[in-house]
Amino acid sequence: MTVESGGATTTAPSLIQLLTPEGERIDHPDYPLELSSADLRDLYRDLVLVRRIDTEAISLQRQGELGIWASLLGQEAAQIGSGRALGPDDMVFPTYREHGVAWCRGIDPVKLLELYRGVSHGGWDPKEHKFHLYTIVIGSQTLHATGYAMGIQRDGALDGDGGEAVIVYFGDGATSQGDVNEAFVWASVFNAPIVFFCQNNQWAISEPLEKQSRIPLYQRARGFGFPGLRVDGNDVLACYAVTKKAMQAAREGQGPTLIEAFTYRMGAHTTTDDPTRYRLASELEMWKLKDPIERVRAYLVRTGQAEPEFFAEVEAEAKKIGADVREACRTMPDPPPMSIFDNVYAEPNPMSAILRAEREQYAAYLDSFEQSEGAAR
User: Fold this and answer.
1) What is the dihedral angle through the alpha carbons of 53, 78, 82, 254, rounded to the nearest 10 degrees?
2) Is pLDDT above 90 for 324?
3) pLDDT of 93-120, one tens digit each?
4) Active-site residue (options: 25, 62, 121, 278)
């Protein structure tokens, strides 16, 4: 939301915005931001490529190549902006649709598809990428993240620019879960170095925002004793600036911050959902005018910071990555059935005997099919 004051465009206090839907740049006194033309083009490239990966995955699911997919369509700016604001040692705790943040942390998109295709348990090393595994249980990652942040604190890893902090992602619906509110309590009381990043896409599956809270979500932070703010979640520049400042505050020992990225879920909650059953088409059309990619493109064109050749190159790269993702998904090998028992425990323990017995039973079950086939021949 913007207002006119003395001929100058300023940002209303309740919504931090640096780039309007029309692609006009706004200055904010609390969030000065200077990015080079190359930086801006890189952000645009991120937005376009991540959207292409997402739309390709939706198509793959519709064609039976994935079991399910949780789309980020419309939320690219919140994820790319916040993801690119992180330091190399910051730790990320995602939900199950932070594909844009995963991209920023160097996760191969194919690894995400492995999980949704059911051929792995989530095949990346959280320590290597500083990006935890996807979390399906709504809100539980906020407690994991808070505990991790308290560990950073106790390890003495807070050190301003060179220190570590944690960011945890969740949706507006998750704010109604007890885990999230418990995490707020612990983070506040122990001054944990954590940023709670709520992507408020306004629909918790089929429940609207007004079923989650009687006040704006960012204002809840006040009740727990730490800062909360609302940023335009479709503005990649604002999401970048706000997250960068909040993470720096966490590293400096200033404690937690709640960021509410006010955005909109353009597609379905997951590919099992039909949003036409519970929301109006006119609402979707209104939010299409606030598209996070188009506003960056408009800004680049208006200010002469990108030529037509650049946009053509990005589109060609998006087309190629889409084809690569499709091919990689369709040619993924199925894991051996017995591999489900691998890596359950790192070391022998009292439960190992039970696991061994279950493994033997399952192996015998699989053998029975081979015996039946042999008898049939």
Assistant:
1) -150
2) yes
3) 999 999 999 999 999 999 999 999 999 8
4) 278
d(CA 279, CA 291): 18
Does the annotation mark 265 as catalytic?
Answer: yes
Residues making up the chain, counted from first to last:
377
Residue bearing tokens 């439960």: 351
How many Å apart are CA 122 and CA 136, to the nearest integer?
12
Burial 236-257 (b: 16+ CB within 10 A, else e): bbbbbbbbbbbbbbbbeeebbb
Cα 129 to Cα 124: distance, rounded to the nearest angstrom:
8
Cα angle 94, 97, 99; round to 5: 85
CB 70 within 8 A of CB 54: no
Of the candidates 57, 157, 184, the one whose C-alpha atom is nearest the C-alpha of residue 117 is: 57
Helix or strand or coil: residue 88? coil
Q: β-strand 2-5 against 8-11: which pairing, if any?
A: antiparallel
Q: Is the dihedral of CA 98, 100, 106, 110 positive or negative?
A: positive
299 tagged catalytic: no
Q: Where are the beta strands (DSSP E) in 108-223?
A: 166-171, 194-200, 203-204, 207-208
Q: Is 361 exposed, middle or buried (0-12, 13-18, 19+ CB in 10 A)?
A: exposed
Residue 269 annotated among the catalytic residues of the structure: yes
Instruction: Report how far residue 36's alpha carbon sits from residue 20's, in angstroms, rounded to the nearest whole number.
Output: 19
Report pTM: 0.90
Catalytic residue, from 41, 99, 251, 265: name it: 265
SS3 243: helix
Q: Copy the structure tokens of residue 77.
A: 């700016």
